[in-house]
Structures are given as C-alpha cells and as structure tokens.
Amino acid sequence: MINVALLGNPNVGKTTLYNALTGSNQYVGNWPGVTVDKKEGFLDKDIKIVDLPGIYAMDTFSNEEKVSKKFLEEGDVDLILNIVDSSNLSRNLYLTTQLKQFNKPIILALNMIDISEAKGIDIDYKKLSEELNVEVIPIIAGKNKGLDKIQERLKRGSFNSPLDSHKYDFSTEKEAYEFIEKVLSISVKEQDNKKETITEKLDRWVLHPFLAYPIFILLMSVMFELTFSWVGQPLSDLLDGFLNDTFIPSVENILASTSPWFKSLIVDGIISGVGGIIVLLPIILVLFMCITILEDSGYMARVAFMMDKLMRKMGLSGKAFIPMIIGFGCTVPAIMTARTLESEKDRKLTALLVPFMSCNARLPVYTVFAAVFFESHRGLVVSSLYLLGIIVAFLLGILFKNTYFKKDEEPFIIEIPEYKMPKLSSIYKQTKDKAMGFLKKASTIIFAMSVVVWFLSNFNIHGMVNEVNDSILASIGSVIAPLFEPLGFGNWQSAVSLLSGLLAKESVLASMQVIFAGDLSVILPEHFTTISAYAFLVFILLYTPCISVIGTMKKEYGTKLTLFSIFFQLIIAWISAFLVFNIGSLIF
Amino acid sequence: MSICNLKLGEKGIISSINGDSKLIKRLFALGCIEGTEVELRRRAPLGDPIIINFRGFDLAIRKNDAKHIMLKK
To answer: pTM (2 decimals)?
Structure first.
C-alpha cells in the first residue's frame, strides 16, 4: 500500500485533482477532535490518497494546519503530492518549502499552466525540478490534462526520499521567500503583460460601491426562487403528492390484512415520518446546487468580503453570512454549509445562531395564527417574527463573542480568488454527496425518532389508544404544560404541539389540527389571547429546531455542542416568550 | 504610513508589520514581508475590509489589521 498525502493552498484545484484521481472511491470522515473533513480515496487498491485541508503554511496554528502536520509526521506517508497554482508560484512554493522539511519524496503538480501561459509566465520545469529536488508534472486539472501522467507516475512507484531537509530549515519567512525568489529567477521567465483580467472587469461591477448589494440581493432572490418557487418546491410537492396519494394508499392496501397497530406503525409512523423528511430532498438539492455554483465560481469569497463589517459585530466573519441566509430556507443545509467556514470557532458559533433564522417550515404556523388573531396586521406580525429572530441571533452573537468564544479571536484574512467557470462534474459530485448524507440521516436517526414519536402518540400504559388525547404524548404534555403557564399558553394541547414540532416544525400545525379537531379559527381563541398567541409564535420561532437539525448538528459538531444548543435555545425561547407575554399583558 | 493611507490603485513597498502575532505569522506565510510590493485594490462597499494585492493575488483584510502593515516612504 502506498500512502499519498495531497496538499496545496486553497483555491488551486486540489479537490478537482483529488476527484479526478480517486473517482467515486472516496470516504469522508472527521479528523479526531476537530470539525475538519478527513477525506481518503483510492487510485487503485494499492494507492491510497489522503486529501488534506487546503492550507497556505504549516506553522500558523489553525486546526487545518495541525491536522496536516500531524498526518505528515505520524501518518506513514510515502509520497507528498503537492498541487500548486503555476500562475502564482511564489506564494504557493512557500508551503512546498515547508513540506520539504519532512524528507519525503514530493511530486509537484503545476496546475493551471494554461492560465500562467496566458499571463506570460514561462516555467522551465526541468530547472524547477532540479532546484527543488522534486518531480514536476504540469497539469490543467479543470480540463483533465496531464492527470494521466500523475496517475502513471503514482502507479509506477519507486519514490526516492531526498534527505535534504536541512536546506529548508529557514529561520524566518523572509529567508524562505528569498530562497523561493532565487529558485524562480532561475526557472521562470515572466513577461510583463498588463492586460485587465476578466476577474478585474467583473469585480468592477460585482464589488461596485453602489451596485454590489443590489447584485447580491438579485442573486440571492434567484437562488430562493429556484428553490422555493421554480424548481425545488414544485418537485417536493410532486414527491409529497406521490407519497400521500399513491404510495401510502398502496401500502395500506398491501397491509390491509395485518393488525391495525402494525399498519399504523408502518404508515403513520415510519412512512409519514421519514417520508416527510425525504420530500424535503429536492429543496435541499436545488439550494445546494446554487450554493456550490456560487462557491466554485469565486463569488462567495466576495460575499464574505462585502458582509464582513456587518457580521463582525456579532463576532463572526463575513463568510458566516451565507449559512445565515440559507437558514431562512432550511436550517439543515445552513448548518451543513457552516462547515466551509475557515475557523472552528466560526463554524460552531454559526451553527448555534443559524437556527434563530426563521426557517421555511415555521411559516405555516405564523400564517394561521396571524390570520386568526391579527387579521389586519398579518404581514406586520409575520415580518416582526423574522426580524426578532435576526435581533436575537445578533444579541447572542455579541454575548458569545465576549464570553464562550472570547479566547479564539482569529484575524480575518481571506484570499479573493479569480473567477472560475464552475465545473459541471464538481457541482454534480458535491450535490450528490450532500443528498446521500441527507438520505443516510433520514434512514437512521429520523427513522428511529419517527418510531418513538409514533409510539408515544398511539399508546398509553394500557395499550394502544384511538385518540392522541389519551396517549403518553398527551400525558407528557400535561406534565410539561405548567412550564408554559407563565408564557400564557399552559394548556396541554399547545405543549403537545410544541413537542411534535421537534419532529418537524410543520407538524406543529398538523398536531394542532388533530388535537383541537375542528375549525382552528374558532377553537384557537378559546385557548389563546392575542398576547399569548404572539408569545406562542415567539416560542415557535426560537425554540429547539426539528430533529433533522439536531441530527445534522450531532453529525457535524458532536453531542456536547448539540445538547448545549438544544437547551440553550429552549431557555432563550422561554425567556423571550415570557417577556413578550408579561410585558405585553401590562401594556395592552 | 500604512497600507490604509494608499489611494485605490496605488502601490507601496512594505517596511514592517506590527500588531497581533497570529496576524503577523499569517501575513508572513503568505509572503507579505518586508520589501514586498503591495497595491490597494478595492474597498468594500461599506468601507471595510479592503482588498490588497501582492505576489499576484488578492487578499481581503480588515482595516484594523491592515493599519499594522507599514510602508516605506
């Protein structure tokens, strides 16, 4: 078995090369103790390629760098495959000089030689190879050129360890860069052709002082329209229709002769529960496709740049703005996107704050309550909730910035890469990976939760019940209902609806329809005043998100942060609803 | 003077970098070191951060950090 470590700066085509070499033969995990992806793939069964995080250096102490360094020191590496941007060698080779210190054989994959040629950079591969004592292979990863040479070379084997680390033991960065400049002066000839690049032309509009934000809002609107009106939602509705009108009836037919409890478990429990999540798949796919396109094109880095000043106020960098926006659609992909943030602190803080962005599934509850209680101010009430979510996230961000995450302040510097045409295969692959991850979750944790909730809502200690009112869920509801008394909605029905909202926020309304059994516009005012109705909506907005989110949280950030997030949101929701109800009751 | 004093499109040569040690380490690793030519490329629509260019690539950096990158007069 040959162990190959793939390393390189961010934005130099490392992922493209990795995908091209390993195809679908990949495994993604986590490095122990940090939320950094551990990606391993196989070129053939004897050549393992480990895709290390994109880094600029090995000594600035980020988790990504620590992971890479530790792996090179302890991971039994036979060969380092170092991909560099040939149009930007001086910065890229700095990492190379640090890799040289490990005394491992290195293949230097010079990527994007078409771009460097167009820029008038003429590289003498042989001289570069001699100067650095590495093997040099020029490639264009985005156009599949030269990749066969890398594959051939890896398969041929027999790599020689250079044992020249002593030459690269520089005492300062300046020394290292002086060395690099010397190497480049021997191996590279650069013509000065000062043409305005496409990137510069585009940026004049995209980062224009007045047009930048309108362009951003336009792009975001197109993304949300695609997701929620043009493609994602219609497909999701189709799937939902198929599930309810075709699939469930036929399953009921097949199970007609089985006992009622079994039929109910399969249909009401598992199929409704898991199916209800799977119908979200088209929405998540479309949203992710859009994000991948924006990310791969280089636009997201610019969004981070534009939004940094705002986001910094809540202790986050500009990059965290994207997950926040996505959170208005669905919290699950938002938390998954938070993974692309640079520092672990940003990822965690974002994951904690994203659920306060009111997700799409909560909207039906707002709409129905607003129609019943706030006839003439519906729009105002609904938008006030969205705004409240943002304000709460903002305040908590400030709070966390000064307490929990205080020590981890990271300087914000991000590379603004050149614009690139997103590659179809990369979009397809990334979207597919997300879909598989989502389905896997639906078939495990959500499956289990569905069974549990079905059991609780259909049984009591004496056996199966016909009415949810007699179920264990209702008993639990009665037990916890007093907790909501100070918030103005201490009835067990609300408590049970809120509990079912843990499964999916859409189920709050569905449960209310089942439990109250009748016209909500008549029944709801019997249980809520105008003020307590608003307090209830505030609670819905802020309390613990659905189990899909909890499952995603657990997968990405582990049990501790997930538990913290669950209870912390419950407390915030309780306090906010309490304030709304009591201050509201005093005023009105 | 620091990078923040440059006009858009203006270039300067770095003389020293002060401030937070983590920041210095990062900038050094990227090749933002004494003697490097640096250009102020762009300001964010809200005025901060800024984009600077050195060694052929664009880097976004907050003014608060950039003011520690001093230029030769």
So the answer is: 0.83
